[in-house]
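Appendix B. One record, verbatim.
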Amino acid sequence: MTKGGKNLFEKDFLEGNLIRNGITGKFSYNKITNLNAGKKLVDNFSNLLQNDFNAIVYNFVDMLSHARTDMEVIRELASDEAAYRSLTLSWFEHSSLLDIFKLIADNGCDVIITTDHGTVRVDEPSKVVGDRNTNTNLRYKQGKNLSYEKRDVFEIKRPEEAFFTKVKCE
């Protein structure tokens, strides 16, 4: 977990969800954010077999999608949708995630695959502009004096009405 990140409590949320749903037993939460962490999980796979439930979060595709916007070399490698998908497939074929899937299959374990968000193919992006304190997130914008085409966005002016926590923009 990174200091000051937005996903610092995923394990706690998972544990709370399991408890609320009456699911008991030993569980693990593993977030893989780099090559070494993935290799370590493969090396210690037998430890996972001691648990009733294991959550494994692979962050690579999310990191790649962000890098595609931020890093010139990734923009070159994944210049269009076909190249991006090819790069993702190449990573998967050589990843510890594939090794984990093989170990899971070899041990007859069940797998549930899910995502915290998907992607939307956009041919004509919409620009949202705000003051210098507007966040740079690609999925949502938060800030003062945002300007955008109303038909292009899902606008929430009162976060509490969408069950979000109200925060002050500084």
